[in-house]
Amino acid sequence: MQILILNGPNLNLLGKREPEVYGSTTFEDYFKALQAKFPTVELSYFQSNIEGEIIGKIQEVGFTYDGIVLNAAAYTHTSVGIGDAVKAVETPVVEVHISNTHKREDFRHVSYISSGAKGVILGFGLQSYDLAIQSFL
Ligand code: DQA
Asked: Structure pTM?
């Protein structure tokens, strides 16, 4: 089973960025823990701060992979293009967020991803990614 974890803008700063919201673990370290936890899953990881690169990656894997775990970060709340890409591909996409976006500012309550997603997992810290992978098994 091939699953891509796709992270959007500023998630390369996990561990340093607002640790009170996002925790103090880097995604690279967490990704190693996920690989160890799911040895039978072929997990890959891509992060970009650029909207078009995220769309390109969804298109690239979206007809062959078994799942995409997508945290589009701030683009969640703005990007019609990423939302359309999620709807355009065959691979199911699970939308994840580290924080509970509904407990935060109003602009974070809107998602352009959710209507095309298989499901949404948010508010469980980095464990949101683990739960999303489990949803594909
Ligand atoms: C986030 C929530 C977004 O509102 C924010 O812009 C992020 C991270 C989360 O994982 O909690 O960058 O997607």
From this structure: 0.97
